[in-house]
Design goal:
This protein is of the alpha+beta class. The protein has three helices and five strands. It is found in: Endoplasmic reticulum; Golgi apparatus, cis-Golgi network; Golgi apparatus.
């Protein structure tokens, strides 16, 4: 059964500015999430530089036996990482449209939000959880 586990938002400097778990997967502490974000940022940048393919911007997908990590990098360098159950359908589309639209509507249009700073926006949280909850209900996944 597909599931969406967690969302990370990493700024263009590699700092973690947002993290939310949708389905508990592991007991990650704050330092673990910060480390994961900075390591991914570094790997993403190295992959873009080492790739023989023209126009490569970095790693978009990491597949493992227990999870898939999808990455969407915006033109400004902000990265959205979504950790999901392996073989979850339409994750790239979800990141590029739905989650990114929520980010632009509720975070970037918030007059009190400063770019590159941690995201603390209640409307973004509410709408993100409503969207993910709707997807999970459609797939028959129990919410915590």
């Amino acid at each position: 059964m597909p599931a969406l586990y967690a969302l990370y938002v990493v700024n263009k400097s590699g700092g973690l500015i947002y993290y939310k778990e949708f389905v508990p997967i592991a007991s990650l502490q704050l330092n673990d999430t910060l480390r994961l974000a900075s390591i991914w940022h570094s790997l993403h940048a190295i992959a873009a530089q080492l790739s023989p393919a023209q126009g490569c911007t970095g790693i978009d997908l990491l597949l493992t036996e227990t999870f898939d990590l999808h990455c969407f990098q915006t033109l400004t360098g902000t990265k959205f990482l979504l950790v999901v159950e392996p073989k979850t359908p339409e994750v790239s589309e979800l990141l590029r449209t739905t989650i990114y639209e929520l980010y632009t509507d509720y975070v970037l249009k918030n007059p009190f939000y400063e770019i590159e700073m941690p995201i603390r926006c209640e409307l973004f949280d509410q709408n993100l959880f409503a969207t993910i909850g709707g997807i999970h209900r459609r797939w028959g996944i129990a919410q915590p």
